[in-house]
Amino acid sequence: MKTIQAVSYPVHFQDKAYKELSSLITKNGYSTIFILVDENTFEHCYPKFIPNLDSEKRIEVIEIESGEINKNIETCIGVWNAITELGGDRKSLLITLGGGVITDLGGFVASCFKRGIDFVNIPTTLLSMVDASVGGKTGVDLGVLKNQIGLFSNPEMVIVDVDFLTTVTEREIKSGMAEIIKYGVTYDIKLFKEIKKNKGLHINDLIFRSIEIKNEVVLQDPKEKNLRKILNFGHTIGHAIESFYLESEDKKNLTHGEAIAIGMVCESYISNKLLNFPETKLNEIKEVVLSIYDRINLLKEDFAGIMELLKHDKKNVNGQVNFVLLNDYENHKLDCKVTEDLIVDSMEFYNF
Amino acid sequence: MKTIQAVSYPVHFQDKAYKELSSLITKNGYSTIFILVDENTFEHCYPKFIPNLDSEKRIEVIEIESGEINKNIETCIGVWNAITELGGDRKSLLITLGGGVITDLGGFVASCFKRGIDFVNIPTTLLSMVDASVGGKTGVDLGVLKNQIGLFSNPEMVIVDVDFLTTVTEREIKSGMAEIIKYGVTYDIKLFKEIKKNKGLHINDLIFRSIEIKNEVVLQDPKEKNLRKILNFGHTIGHAIESFYLESEDKKNLTHGEAIAIGMVCESYISNKLLNFPETKLNEIKEVVLSIYDRINLLKEDFAGIMELLKHDKKNVNGQVNFVLLNDYENHKLDCKVTEDLIVDSMEFYNF
Asked: Which GO terms describe its biological process (chains A, B) (predicted)?
């Protein structure tokens, strides 16, 4: 696959990517290469990656515990101390090898260490390939508030190697599919139709087109002042549901994609009510979502708790929850205010 | 005094500054204004500042404990939580009111909160006015390692109001003088000669010229690849001595300026040995330093501990300590390697 050129760095695919990585390392004369992994990617991805790393430089592996729960500043302090103890300096390179937690946290760690060292992202899940690989968002959670602490900061390059997808579960693959559906309904309806009619579509093509779309959006609006907000479609309600399930001890966690899929159904419903988003299309989105993901039963008694979390959404200003909604496929409206009643209705619509 | 235009923001002086701040607040429509202080600046500077803040916006004060020892990530987490609990959003403004700890830490806190909110620096010590006000360096310490975690990030504006200097001690004023001496010997020898011949020179002029010089240097080399390294003159040995005294329980702490002044004498001595920096000028620097600061007796038994800290200097690459040295006044050489023996000799030269 061809390279995609992002704002200030390239996204390389497959074998070509590793040649480019070696060139980068040679060109920039790094002193040490740090590789950030979790226990899963160290076991399953690191052995696939390391034969491709053609370099004589000193290599040090830093492992953190997997899971969103560890995506916090305390973990960052641990990594900063590890890099320091291992003699990291301003000419060090950090390679992140993992899902969104590793790439988001690793990018933040690198960007703040001695006011910034270079980093390269190697996403190993479908979600991190199509979402976290482009766009320059890095960060960690503050308590239950997702990505509350972070930066816009770009890697030197991103490497997308679909072979890593053999290391993850079917459920994790589905988690990434929700973002691809989002790119489809907000930006390129052909992509959505492909998913609807043909579940066997080659994953490589879905990934490539998704990264292309995200890159086009981010190039036009890197700091999320306007167009980039469409990438939040489904995420306002979706994030709140995800956090609520994460906090609730008696519920099993939802993946990011499972929560965002519900969020897209809800926000399509709100779009129908407020902006006349066509009902046939609303039903089409719900149908595709329910063909991929098991239906979750959102309990009435949980609505208040989900609403409370919505009020902490990063996009809020002056206490107002801001939604991006759809007038139609590929046609959005930013900064829509929505009443609590309508949000509750939308969750009931998802339920039935 | 005229406004100085830095890379992407202005440095305003005195009364004009407060008018500009009010305009900024009106123009950008901030939701809330957070003011970061320590217990000293809350008592002495906040009452001077607040009558000048002409705004109807909600104002929230966040206080942290004073002192370099609190310039760490744990303090940042406390401030991030406070901003969150007080309803801070992406349209919040953070005003830092204090010395270098407040401005460095506050700039970092703002730059990472929800991927960056606006901040305005109001330095209240001579050191932070002439050093921290321009240049975009923000950050905190990691253990004893100074500014190990941080970013280059620019405020919306800097306000320099010399009236705040009435709130600080003579010793703190002297701490700032070391940076002005540094600007003199590395960049504008007239400034150094003024300090030498006339201790009564108007402080306003010294501050204005110092900020002008720092700004000229930073504009030419914002990321410290070349020229900006001259601002580290005296700081390589100076920082190590400062950290060593901070760590040693049986010694009283040195101010930043007291340590940097010693560092400048030592590094001038090394310049004389390695680059033939003229001996008369070396003696002139030592004489001016000793006319301002009490002589500290550096103990032979402490040299090894100071040397150990030198090895963690942020500027090091591949374990090599990098010095910026002087060929002559206003004439420097970057990236000089220096042996341990010569560093020891230089500390002995300072002692006698």
From this structure: aromatic amino acid family biosynthetic process; chorismate biosynthetic process
Interface of A with B in 80-99 (CB under 8 A): 80-81, 84, 87, 89-91
> Is pLDDT above 90 for A295?
yes
> Domains in chain B, start-ordered, CATH in brackets?
4-167 (3.40.50.1970), 170-351 (1.20.1090.10)
Partner-chain contact B317 A115, CB within 8 Å: no
Helix, strand or coil, per DSSP, at residue A114: coil
CB contact under 8 A, B89 and A113: no
For residue B200, the model assigns a pLDDT of 56
Q: Does A199 lie at the interface with B, CB-CB under 8 angstroms? A: no
CA angle, residues A116, B262, B287, in degrees to nearest 5: 140
Of A84, A137, A147, Cβ closest to residue B142:
A84
* Residues B68/B73/B77/B78 CA torsion (nearest 10 deg): -20
Place of tokens 């053609």: A54
Give the pair of three-digit tokens for residue B330: 């206003």
Residue A196 touches partner B, C-beta closer than 8 Å: no
Render pLDDT for B313-341 as a digit per residue (tens, 0 to 9).
Answer: 766 766 678 899 999 999 999 999 999 99
Report how far residue B56's alpha carbon sits from residue B32's, in angstroms, rounded to the nearest whole number: 10
Tell me the nearest-neighbour CA distance from B302 into chain A, angstroms.
Answer: 23
Query: Which of A90, A116, A150 shows the shortest C-beta gap to B112?
Result: A150
Region at B116 (left for phi over 0; alpha for psi -120 to 50; beta for the rest):
left
Distance CA A121, CA B249 (A): 43
Helix axes A256-275, A170-187, angle to 10 degrees: 20
Residue ranges of A 9-68 with Cβ closer than 8 A to chain B: 31
Report the DSSP beta bridge partners of residue A61: A35
Rg of chain A on CA atoms, in Å: 20
ipTM summary value: 0.88
